[in-house]
Design goal:
Layout: H1 5-61, H2 65-75, E1 79-81, H3 84-102, E2 105-113, E3 121-132, H4 134-145, E4 152-160, E5 173-185, H5 189-193
Parallel strand pairs: 1-5
Antiparallel strand pairs: 2-3, 3-5, 4-5
Helix pairs in contact: 1-2, 3-4
């Protein structure tokens, strides 16, 4: 069967259109799932933030026994320090210890915190740069999630460190992770001595 150039062009365009439809049929649902998961994670973070704000409002505006007991329960799960930066240093130490327990290699740790306590609680955060395989990362994330102190992953960036790893070796991943927490002022040294 012989096709003239117009028929070949029509056939080629039809093949391209079919390929595009098939590609969209596979990519679009995956993109929708990823978007739904991201929205679900975002909603979870918003809910957690709302609960924290409610607890802070209770802490700042109510002297009831119930509010005091809730605040006390929170205070046992936050970092203490004379300054937020000192508390963030404690967060960095906890994260590095968890990394050592899982075999992750931390190459840098950067603390971020307010310079002074302006309210009862202050947000703190630490960014770590590390390398690990997927199993080590999963164990580290489980330790962070189940830690006795309230920790939250603020961001995580994963890039492939060794894309051509041998089949018998896991790929090394380069990680850039920010973890946040709350801090409360510890008693100054002068008051503790009395």
């Amino acid at each position: 069967m012989h096709l003239d150039p117009g028929q070949r062009r029509t056939l080629a365009v039809g093949a391209v259109v079919i390929a595009v439809i098939l590609l969209i049929g596979r990519v679009l649902p995956a993109a929708h799932r990823a978007e739904a998961q991201a929205l679900q994670r975002e909603q979870g973070l918003r809910d957690e933030l709302d609960r924290a704000r409610q607890l802070l409002a209770i802490a700042e505006g109510s002297d009831t026994l119930a509010a005091t007991s809730r605040i006390t329960a929170i205070e046992t799960r936050v970092f203490r320090g004379e300054t937020p930066a000192a508390a963030a240093g404690g967060l960095a130490a906890v994260l590095e210890n968890l990394a050592r327990r899982t075999g992750m290699e931390v190459s840098a740790s950067v603390i971020r915190a307010d310079t002074a306590f302006t309210q009862r609680f202050a947000p703190i955060s630490t960014r770590i740069v590390a390398s690990a395989n997927a199993e080590q990362l999963a164990r580290w994330l489980a330790l962070v999630e189940n830690h006795e102190l309230m920790l939250r992953i603020e961001s995580i960036t994963i890039s492939n460190f060794t894309p051509a790893a041998a089949a018998d070796q896991p790929e090394a991943l380069r990680l850039d992770i920010s973890v946040g927490a709350l801090a409360i002022r510890s008693q100054p040294l002068v008051e503790r001595a009395q």
